Structures are given as C-alpha cells and as structure tokens.
C-alpha cells in the first residue's frame, strides 16, 4: 500500500522529474522540479490554490515516483522525453504530431541528387527546410531537375557508369546522363551549386538566364523552346513569390505567437531560413482555464523542439517565459551551437511576431466557426432528434444490432454516441449464448437483457462499495435506445426494460425496401424525418455504425473458425452435404421445415442422412417449445 504522506517525507531536495500514477497505474502527469521535495509536496497542500485542472488531477493520484538528475537542464530533457512517450492525461498536450518535409541534396555522392525527405539525418547531405507543404517541396524539386538537368536515378555512380542505357529523362533533355559519363563531376557539381543557391533564395541569376534564353529562342523563331522557357520562368517566379525577405542577416529563426480562449489555444510558427520566410504552420493545444499565455508557450516550446530535428539559431516569442534560460541551454546542446530565445521590442522583428499573432487569432476564429459547424452535426442533430420525439436532455444514445449468416451463430453489437459523437471506449460486443439459429428477436432479447442486467449489478456493487465507479463499464444507462428495425425490435426492447423495471425511451430506426433509413418508430407511430436534416444524417451514421460493428465482430469470429454452421452439428452431414442442402433450400429455416422425403431428394443425401437432419431440427423445435411453455408457466 502506497502511503502518500509517508512517501512525501522521503523526497530529496534535488532537481529531477516526478511521475504521477492513478488507480490503474497509468501515468497521468509528468513534471520537472528544481527541488523535488518542495515541488511535489505543493500538490498535496490544501492551502495551495492549484486551479481546477490540478485539483482534479490530485484526486486521481494513487502513487508517485521520481527520478533525480544532476541539473535542472537534465530534468527538462527527461521531462520532455517522458511526456512524448506517455502523453499523460493532465499534461498540456499538442493535439497533432506532424513531421515536415525537407529538400535533401546528397553531397556525399559524386553526382549528387535533389530528393524529398521527411527526416534530417547527420550525414554528408545538405538539407533545406523544413517546409510546411509537401506539394510545394515536390514542385520545387521537379523545377530544379528541369532547370539544371539533374539526375533522378539511384544508380551508384561512377561505379555503374555505362552499364545500362540512359533513361527517358536524357532523351527528353531533362538529364545530362552522368550514368553514361556524358558530363564530368566538376561540370555537374556547378549545376548542383546553382540549385543550392536557388534553394537559399538566390533567384535572380536563374530568372535572368531564362529570360535571355526565352528572348533568344523567340528571335530565332523557335517558339516551342520559347514557350518551354516561359513556363520554367513562371514556375521560378511562383516559387520566388512564396518567400518573403524578413531580414538581411541570413539567419535561421522560428517566430512564434499565441492566441487562446477559455478551452483552446493556437500557436502560430513562422519558419525563417537564411533570412527568408519560407513557410508557416499552426498547432492546436488543449488547455485548462487557469493556464496562462506564458505557461502554454513554454509547454509548446518543450514539446515541439523535443520532436523536431532542426533547431534554429534564434527563437522569437511575444512574451517572456519562466524557464527561458534552461530551455535555451537545452536547445544549445541539441543544436551544437548557441540558441537564443528573444522577445523583440521594436522594428521588423516585432512586426513579424505581431503578424504571427494575427495569424494565430485568425486560425482560432476560423476553427471556432468550424467547431460550430461540427456542433450542428452532433449536438444540434441530437436536439433535432429530441424535438421529433418530444424528449428532453438526450446526451447518451445506445444502438443495438444483430449480425448472422444463414446457419451461423448470431452476434450482437452495442454502439454508444454521446452528444452526437461516437464513444468507442463504451462499445460492446456480445456473443450469443442462449439462441440457436438466426432468430433476431431472441438474439436481441438476450443482448439487451445481458446489457442492462450487467449494468444493474454493477450499480448494486458500487452502492455496496465493492466496485470502483470508474471500473463499472455498464453503469451508465442511455437517455435513448435506438433499435435497428421497427415495431418488432422496439417491442423486444420494451419487454426487456419492463422485466428489469427500467424506464428508458426506445426508438426504432426504420429502413425502406432499399435498406436505407426511412424514419423513426416511437410510441407505436412511425415518424417521418427530413432527409436533408442533420438529425437524419446522425441517425444514419449511428445505424451504419451499429451494423458495421456487429458485422466486423461476426467476421472476426468466423475468420478464427469460432462460428460454424448449425448443419455441422448434425451427425453424418459433412461439407458436401451441407453445401448441397444450402444450394437446394433458400435458408436454414426452409431446411428446418422440410420433411424426410423432400430432404432425401437433395443430391448427395440418402435416407439415413435425411432422417438425421429431420430428427435434429424436430428435437430442436421440441426443446424450444418446452422452454417457451416453462417460461409462460413461470409468468
């Protein structure tokens, strides 16, 4: 038994990282401290104003552990690594984890290539980027290959020189065939240096050269060549216009700004490489109401640079952060050169930070509008359904479906939607235990009975203190039950609820002859629903999801050989006779109703086999009748 108060006394007064665990031993928070003893004790002091998020987290802490380090910098590095590895629930987390493309020039090769890369490695290659658009990177690489006639093959040169014929690019004048030795390494590398100059933003020599070639071709009446040069010139100008000069110092820097509201934040990052703005990207962050701008920016810095291979020389922020010096030292170690974190106060740099902030606010505003549209699809759709059924306060909806194939054991599915969104952690699968053959009503009766009986039992155990509320997977009951079908399925659900003394609205999702949602069946009435409404679309999504989940489970069991034909249970009926019976009759029910003479006429069947089939289903029917009679007598 972990005694928190006793363990707090043992904490050392040294720098390090502390790790909080919940009752399931999951890591829920990771933090760093200059003094572990002082920092960790603060979480458990009632006099401290910790904020709602930390207050809630503390109620879930069942134990903690810590790792001491020699310095605060080491603690920072370890904290970043652990957060990235475990993604704890109560740490402020980036919502996305992106990788950015680079342009790679393989300078380690005799005849270098210009390639697309998602990683920047410590090799002999030169990397340009990162860029925010993979499409733009590919377009730029294609342009460079055309401009400088660079090779695209992966042949090992000069070892493989002359071993194979030149490729198509040579014949269409887009490669100078170094694979044939038609160009010397010295001449080829002059072109590579020009390509790297282009990537560094030196566009004017290329533009002048193309303009001269275009004009010369036009004067010589070589109009096809002139058009080709014109297209290349337009491509170069298009790339050049995307890069805005921000300074003449040629430095690499990241410019960051933040926009935030009560629940969400957006960090905008401008990538300045070689003194030029080459792109931008935004990142969404989940925050708590008490998080400050400075705290969010600091968290973002640590997580972002823990995951990106490129560290710029300078990082510009709109405000000072608490661990600025420690983070700067950490980034300096990662880069191998001094990294500066600055807060510009005037001039072009301040304007650039302001521009990043304006973009961040724009993204946050646009996303808020997107969230409103999403709420229309979810919460708004739930309100439409509630209005149709004259119900109030619908939050949780559960939908049920049965899947079976002729002669295969049935399985059931339960899907859960909360506030119009799927809650997949609450989905449940049921393998039928009491039903033989394809009886959807009996199968649904079993599934619903098991679902709600289990829930009632968990509730009872929680009340008696024998079960943690968080461990009860069936305790939460729906505000509305959705059945895949009409009157028959709804009545089955109502019967189960009546037997268990539960009062939950039940609605059927009625389909037309083409198996498309037609309307809702509620309180003995079919209610039409506008097919262009969000409510209708949500009903369709739920119905499709319940069906998909049931079929997926059914297939997985069948694939493992865990579901078999009921005909396999009949002595003397092997694969050949089973196939013959299924070909002759439309369904298992038809086989069940057939007499001995009819069964005997099926190809490959004889009198003994026909008798075995007839006797099997007759005994099965007798057993079902006995169960029904017993149940009626008990009622």
Automatic annotation (TrEMBL):
GO terms for biological process: nucleotide-excision repair; SOS response. Residues 255-497 form the UvrC family homology region profile domain. One of its GO terms (cellular component) is cytoplasm. InterPro entries: GIY-YIG_endonuc, GIY-YIG_endonuc_sf, GIY-YIG_UvrC_Cho, RuvA_2-like, UVR_dom, UVR_dom_sf, UvrABC_protein_C, UvrC. Residues 13-92 form the GIY-YIG domain. It is found in: Cytoplasm. Pfam families: GIY-YIG (PF01541), HHH_5 (PF14520), UVR (PF02151), UvrC_RNaseH (PF22920), UvrC_RNaseH_dom (PF08459). GO terms for molecular function: DNA binding; excinuclease ABC activity. Its main location: cytoplasm. Residues 204-239 form the UVR domain. Keywords: Cytoplasm, DNA damage, DNA excision, DNA repair, Excision nuclease, SOS response. SUPFAM superfamilies: C-terminal UvrC-binding domain of UvrB, GIY-YIG endonuclease, RuvA domain 2-like. The UvrABC repair system catalyzes the recognition and processing of DNA lesions. UvrC both incises the 5' and 3' sides of the lesion. The N-terminal half is responsible for the 3' incision and the C-terminal half is responsible for the 5' incision. Belongs to the UvrC family. Interacts with UvrB in an incision complex. This is UvrABC system protein C. It comes from Candidatus Eubacterium avistercoris. The lineage of its organism: Bacteria, Bacillati, Bacillota, Clostridia, Eubacteriales.
